[in-house]
Structures are given as structure tokens and as C-alpha cells.
Specification:
Helix Hairpins, single chain, two-stranded antiparallel ribbon, 9 helices, globular, mainly alpha
């Protein structure tokens, strides 16, 4: 029950951030609160591995510290002026590690589920959306470090003036391109122009493909075992 609740909270948090990006200014900046909630949901829900849940062991302190550090540096980054470009470097490094580690821990959590139900599917979808949103942060951080890394991105007048916080960047467009890269759609309306931007896009595409392959493998194996058990015991009687 607790894990099912976590899957739903994670999915709702991801959808809330995406909905906020679709709102007109200045309401779209509510996504900053959504990112904060998303990070806290991940830290709280994934700080304990499945084996630790079964044995009652202590949570993973390293993962918790990484998550808290990623959230803290992200908050600092959103409040700093755009001309302070180096603040995006720890955001890229920390959220790359935090997002990747979160995806791995979520896949392990899904692999330990005995039954594939609606909550498990919600968790699988939430993990994919979480990767996209984390990738959007990487692209935003890169744009603050190297302005002009992408062609087709309207950075906005606030960011161009270099007198406001990094939230003046067009987060919606950068997150849109992150999901385009994650799904390997490649519409061509946004194009990376620098080598770091190209490599980050490759990394995002590979991570998205790997996540789908891993989750599909887990779900198919769980469904196979589930159907086998039902075939052996169609009336739900215990042996």
C-alpha cells in the first residue's frame, strides 16, 4: 500500500510540473514549486531499497544526501542572476547523478513487485516523466553556462537582459526539447549547436531508450510469472 501511494504521488508530481509549464506567464513559474515537491517525493520514497524494506534496515544515506544536495543547489541556481553562469555546473552534475540513481532505484522497486497492477504502471510512467523533467533541468543549466547552446529556443527578454534570475529562461521550451530527445522523436525545430549540448542530448536519448527497455523487461517478466501462477492455481487456493 505504501509503495502504491508513492507511485501515485510521483506521477501526480510529474504531471503537475508539466501542467505548470503549459500555463501562461507568470503562472508557469509555479513549476519551480513542482520541481521542489518532485525532488522531495523522490528522496522520501526511494531513500530505502527493496531489500532494506524487507529487512527493516536503515535507508540509504548516500542517496538521501545526494537528493537533498541536488534540491538545495537547484534552489540556489533559480535565485541567482543569469550572469552567474557557473551556478549551473553543480545543477547539471548533481541532477544527472540524482535522476539516474532515482531511475535505477525505481526500476529495482518495480522489479520487486509481485503483481503488475495500475499502481505499478503508474510508477513506470512516473519514472519516465521524471527522467524527462530531470533532463530539462540539465538543458536549462547548460543554457545558463553556455548561452546559445540551442537553436530555436526563445530565451526571453528577461534572460537576454542578464539582470534577472535564471527563471527568466524559457523552461517550457527546454523541457519540451528534453522530452523530444528522451523519446528520440527529433522534430527538428530545436537543434543543439555546441558539442556539450549534443552530448547531453545523446545521453538523454540513450537513458530514455534504456529505461523503456529495462521497465518493459521487468513488466513482461512479472506478467509472465503472474500468468503462470494463475494457470497453476486458477481458483486462488493455496497449495
Amino acid at each position: 500500500m505504501q509503495r502504491s501511494f508513492f507511485y501515485r504521488r510521483l506521477l501526480i508530481s510529474c504531471i503537475a510540473v508539466m501542467v505548470c509549464f503549459g500555463l501562461p506567464e507568470p503562472w508557469s513559474r509555479l513549476a519551480s514549486i513542482g520541481y521542489l515537491i518532485l525532488g522531495l517525493v523522490l528522496v522520501q520514497g526511494l531513500c530505502t531499497e527493496p531489500t532494506e524494506l524487507a529487512t527493516g534496515g536503515p535507508p540509504s544515506r548516500s542517496y538521501r544526501r545526494l537528493g537533498i544536495s541536488a534540491i538545495a543547489f537547484w534552489l540556489l541556481w533559480t535565485l541567482t542572476p543569469v550572469e552567474m553562469r557557473n551556478t549551473g555546473i553543480p545543477v547539471i552534475l548533481l541532477w544527472t547523478c540524482f535522476g539516474g540513481w532515482s531511475a535505477i532505484r525505481l526500476i529495482r522497486r518495480l522489479a520487486n513487485e509481485r503483481v503488475v497492477n495500475a499502481a505499478v504502471l503508474q510508477g513506470a510512467l512516473a519514472g519516465y516523466l521524471m527522467l524527462g523533467l530531470a533532463s530539462g533541468l540539465l538543458l536549462c543549466g547548460l543554457e545558463t553556462i553556455q548561452p546559445g547552446s540551442f537553436q530555436g529556443i526563445d530565451i526571453g527578454t528577461e534572460a537576454a537582459g542578464l539582470s534577472h534570475s535564471v527563471w527568466g529562461l524559457n523552461f517550457a521550451q527546454l523541457n519540451y526539447f528534453a522530452f523530444v530527445s528522451l523519446t528520440t522523436m527529433g522534430y527538428g525545430d530545436v537543434v543543439p549547436l555546441t558539442a556539450p549540448a549534443s552530448m547531453i542530448c545523446v545521453m538523454i536519448a540513450v537513458s530514455g531508450t534504456f529505461y523503456i527497455a529495462a521497465v518493459m523487461g521487468v513488466l513482461i517478466s512479472r506478467l509472465t510469472i503472474q500468468e503462470t501462477e494463475q494457470a497453476r492455481n486458477p481458483y486462488g487456493k493455496s497449495d
